[in-house]
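PROTEIN SPECIFICATION:
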Amino acid sequence: MWSGWPTMGETVPADFDFEVVAATLTGKWEQYEQLPTALQSVVLSDHTECTDHWCIRCAYRRGYEHFVANGQTGRDFDQWCAQKGSYGQWRSEADPAKYVYRGNCCDGTAVRNYLADLVGRDWPSVIDRRNRIQWFSDNGADMTGIETEEQFGSFCGRMGRINLDRGVNSDGMTGDDYWAAILEAALL
């Protein structure tokens, strides 16, 4: 059984062609615009106070509002997202070896990233990296010249090697333990 099928227990027909269905799907923003105005306000909460740069609901909302402000529709936004994420009628363009749900095989197809690009915001991962570099600097590490993802990755790799040389496997750590071990190596 699959979502949206009218009766319980039915199986997908043997001659079912998902490519035909995918090419004609109705997106959530097109559906949203079909709702009565009073119901639209119930469906979407206010996102202007949200400070979570990883919030996908707010990212979609900002993207939708960007399209509408430029005279486009929810359907236009749905189609743009589908093309960026290689789903819907663009599903056949996805690389089967790399494809995961709604794109997300790499930074360029990651939902949060292309939605951030659309409205002129930094990628959430860029914000996190910048904040982490600042955290290291605030805690006494010399972060001079470390700005990009590649530079930061090299820095962490060097600190990981220092840790291994002193008998600490920071690569086997996660979260705060990992960052504390990398900082400790940077302060040596």
